[in-house]
Amino acid sequence: MFLGNTLLGSSDLAILAKLLLAALAGAIVGLEREKHGRPAGLRTNMLVSVGACTMMIISEAFYLKYGAVAGDSVLRIDPARTAAQIITGIGFLGAGVILKDGPTVRGLTTAATLWVVAGLGMSFGMGFLSLGVLSTVLVLFSLIFMRKVDVLIKKDRYLPVSITGFRRASLYDDIHKVVDDLGMVVIESSSRVDLVEDEAFFRMVLGKRGKRSGGEILAAIEEIKGIKKIQIG
User: What percentage of the chain exceeds 70 in pLDDT?
Assistant: First the structure.
């Protein structure tokens, strides 16, 4: 269902309805994000949705105002350009909430939420109410109910580990044996040696499945002879 350019004979009422619906959709999604302590919460999602809605209304206004210009005029009206620029702008905003911490990337869901909330605002901005409502429901389903399914899925997890020890020939082999005994695999590894201090440094990314804790790994590596320092994460 499309909402026309007028509501009860007033264009202002139509604009108000679009903005309020966009604000409501953004607030509902943002409330879920706020509840889980995400950096882009209630206000951010609401602003993104209202902003996208406003830009779509402006895009439509350009066409209504200048659409009757003669075809041989130098003025060219393309309402789709505004929509394209909204998507580009949200891309920059989403990139700001993505953080890379070692092998772990955080903030992808938050960035995707901002992107889809902008789409909700665009839907209401162009008066496509059914699309906006259905999309809002699906977004909430993904964020709330799929979270419960996500917990049930057994996943491969990755754990960065840094180890410092006295340099000896079998140190690296001893570390690998502990990793194997714990049922883990080495995804990435690097090492260096300090000949002055007679120390060896190892940096590994360990792959694990299940809920094996970092404390268990820490305790196992501590038992290796010559270990001086261990850092997990």
Answer: 88
3-class DSSP state of 35: helix
Main-chain dihedrals φ then ψ at residue 36, nearest 5 degrees: -95, 15
Tell me the longest C-alpha to C-alpha distance in the chain: 85
Average pLDDT, the chain: 83
Spatial distance between the Cα atoms of 164 and 208, rounded to a whole number of angstroms:
22
User: DSSP 3-state assignment of 175?
Assistant: helix
Predicted model pTM: 0.71
The token duo for 199 is 């120390």
Q: Are 198 and 166 in contact (CB under 8 A)?
A: yes
Q: Over the stretch 68-103, which tens digit does the pLDDT of each residue have?
A: 665 566 666 677 777 788 888 888 888 888 876 655
- What is the C-alpha to C-alpha distance for residues 174 and 178, in angstroms, rounded to an integer? 6
Asked if residue 77 lies in contact with residue 69, where contact means CB atoms within 8 angstroms, the answer is yes
Q: Distance between CA 81 and CA 93 in Å, rounded?
A: 19
Q: At what angle do helices 129-140 and 11-35 cross, to 10 degrees?
A: 10
Average pLDDT rounded to a whole number, residues 8-18? 85
Q: Is 77 exposed, middle or buried (0-12, 13-18, 19+ CB in 10 A)?
A: middle
The residue type of 212 is: R
Helix axes 11-35, 42-66, angle to 10 degrees: 160
The first and second tokens of residue 104, run together, are: 């772990």
Cβ atoms of 3 and 18 closer than 8 Å: yes
Q: In what order do the strands lie in the sheet with 199-209?
A: 185-194, 199-209, 156-166, 227-232
